[in-house]
Amino acid sequence: MEIINKVQSSGLLSLDLEEFYPEGERVVLDIKEQLFMGMILKEKDFREYIKNTDWSSFEGKHVTLLCSADAVIPTWAYMLLSNKLTPFVLSLHFGNLQQMEDNLILEAIRTKVKVEEYKDAKVVIKGCGKLGIGNAAYVEITRLLSPVVQSLMFGEPCSTVPVYKRRN
User: Fold this and answer.
1) Domain boundaries, the chain
2) Contact 71, 41 (CB under 8 A)
3) Which of 28, 36, 52, 105 is the most buried (most CB within 10 A)?
4) pLDDT digits (tens, 9 = 90+) for 104-163
């Protein structure tokens, strides 16, 4: 008796978002330590910090900027940091680590997923990976693919949750 792989013969295309996950070290640059009395950013002191920091230590890293203290940080402070970091970093973001991860994967999906390759296809978006891809990525891939696919599912080809099916 011949064993038939029904998943393989179903015509389903499996899409693993982890394949788009950007490599590289992630770094959070928290300017809390630059605050006077943990509350105030003094321009003169901050400019001294900017001048005396070796920004090359961020070479080739994904960096996100934030202030974890409950303080009002002027916009120009983040602009100064951005100016110094840009020549060295792989990417630069604002917000916490999860926000940076979301930004990285969203940018990768938008630039690397060739939507036209999925035209009229039955697509399964793989879930339960090792990297813990955030929900923002699944929302974005659904937004991109729903207008072109015949059907969209979540899970594994052997066990899927239907998300979208085009009406004939």
Assistant:
1) 6-22+101-165, 26-89
2) yes
3) 105
4) 999 999 999 999 999 999 999 998 778 878 999 999 999 999 999 999 999 987 889 999
